[in-house]
Fold these 2 entries.
Entry 1:
Amino acid sequence: MLTLIKNGEVYGPDYLGKQDILLAGTKIAMIGKSIPTPEGLEVKVIDATEKKVVPGFIDSHVHLLGGGGEGGFKTRTPEIMLTDITKGGVTTVVGCLGTDGFTRDMKSLIAKARGLEEEGVSAYCYTGSYQVPVRTTTGSIQEDLILIDKIIGVGEIALSDHRSSQPTIEELERLTAEARVGGILSGKAGVVNIHLGSGERGLEYLEKIIDKTEIPPTQFLPTHMNRDEELFQKAIAYGKKGGLMDFTTSTTKRFLEEGERKCSKALVRALKLGIKLEQITFSSDGQGSLPDFDRQGNYIGLQVGRVTSLYEEVRDAVLSEGLDLATALAVITKNPATILKLKNKGEIKKGFDGDLVLLDHESLEIDTVIAMNQVMIREKEIAIKGTFE
Ligand SMILES: CC(C)C[C@H](NC(=O)C[C@H](N)C(=O)O)C(=O)O
Ligand SMILES: [Zn+2]
Ligand SMILES: [Zn+2]
């Protein structure tokens, strides 16, 4: 199937100017000025005049099965549906388990990722959950990475949080070493997605491991680094040592009042403080719980994370914080693709996957979403059965 997207302002995420883009099969076949409509072939032509064309968004931390439970059974959060993902312009997700790594398991997570792939988006998983030792599928982290295509790393491993399994630094070193070697042997990132709570120890374990072992800082993708000012400051110090930082875009009014840093502002501040753009990503924590505890650790209530918050924060960074679009887009396109070694993802380049989002020129609202050259949302209309094909 051929799709010709005409005359859009293209950000790959770097600005490429007015270009036509030809999609063939599931790939970007050509990018160029005024590509002629191929004769005698069935081509879907999309007029992107007055639109910006950007890479499909990558959400590196989504509770595909739902999560939660921190307030008891009634607070389990719901499984994600395809349109929860595509209406946010997201065309690639990485699934994880959280606090409840007991009633939700890796077999279900892998099956859910496969289901989403059948529906047209790209989906991967981290093996494990908050807990250490990591509950794998094959019995070993290395074999999960080597044998199960959907598994690209380990997580979300909880540190500095009252809900963590209180792992020792040796246990964390060991599982990270296993993830690294499993990644190397399978050509994957083998990244360890770390859940940071607001505990005093903060990033201590990670700093010690990258200081005293051969494990590089890029082996860790620590998330929730914007959850409060103290952790944000620690993240900046960690970033100066080459550490990566992922900011969580799902939030609540109360969290922001309690000191959580809004992602659009955290991005601008981190750049101003000298953190390099390629060290920074956003992820949504979609369908994960956003639980509230008092100072004594008593449960107060919870809300549910939304994948749509991912691009909302990027759009705010541009419209409210004055960041340029190419810079803001990088944290949900090229950066996660590079860090997680997601081949052919995150950029508008010949040979890369046909994952594209068309934005309204002025409002930057999502207009059309194309995943693997299938139109999932067209002129803001959501395809009922997933795609318009
Ligand atoms: C970053 C904050 C706001 C949310 C964060 N969510 C999770 O980690 C996922 C959740 N525990 C689940 O298992 O569904 C948190 O709880 O700290
Ligand atoms: Zn988390
Ligand atoms: Zn989470």
Note: Residues 61, 63, 96, 98, 156, 285, 288 surround zinc ion (ligand 3) (CB under 6 Å).
Entry 2:
Amino acid sequence: ACQHRLWPEIDKVVQQQVAMARMGIGECGSGWQLFAEDGEMKMYRREEELDGMVVDPLKAVHVVKGITGHEVCHYFFTPQYRYDWETTLEQMNVLETISDDTLMFMQTHKRIWPASQRDVVFWSHIRKLPNEKDRDGPDIWTVVNNSTEHPDYPANNGKCVRIFLKVCLMCQTRVDPPKDGTPLSRENVSCKITYCSVVNPGGWAPASVLRAVYKREYPKFLKRFTAYIINQTKNKPIMF
Ligand SMILES: CCCCCc1ccc(-c2ccc(S(=O)(=O)CCO)cc2)cc1CCc1ccccn1
């Protein structure tokens, strides 16, 4: 991955996105409003517009028992599972395998009335980060998805409006070893998930429509995604 043309950009964006994800809601600057809550899952957004278009940053935090950060990032990054959990995905193609930790995707998402259908081209990078707070604690895992251009898929040349996104999924595993010295099991692990995204919807779409879509789709996505991982991993060895 180090020699690929995108590597400098990938490294810069990953460092930047992880720093943002690590900041708590309080530190992240004011203006965050809680717009969805379900048990441990809390979703915040900031209302921002760019040239009259809604580009609300989103930050979701969730704590899920029985899975690890590596498992969450593995199922988020790996293409073969995506149709199982991505609620609005219509078509997904891997355009380039840049390295074993970096892929390039082209995705079209189902049309959401009354807006026109969207597509997106992005690189996706998975990385393990040292746990700065607790040296001998489990590592932090992250996946960063960042829009990019691809010569074979120019923006807005077909039926779809090209969206631009920057997404960071950052996961911190927590291990609470059993008191009685029995071997570690899934009851002793949990994962703190931070999901940040900024999406520019590309062409114009009514602010009310976009905010309604995000309010409905993001909680659905995170609940369905985490339920999927719990189900996929329950009878498998723990991936740290
Ligand atoms: C009027 C519709 C405007 C655009 C809607 C939209 C915008 C962004 C996205 C999207 C694309 C990828 C990601 S990802 O985190 O990288 C995961 C890999 O798939 C995340 C969200 C999707 C959708 C379509 C509607 C929608 C909104 C949230 C969640 C799911 N679907």
Note: The chain has a mean pLDDT of 94.
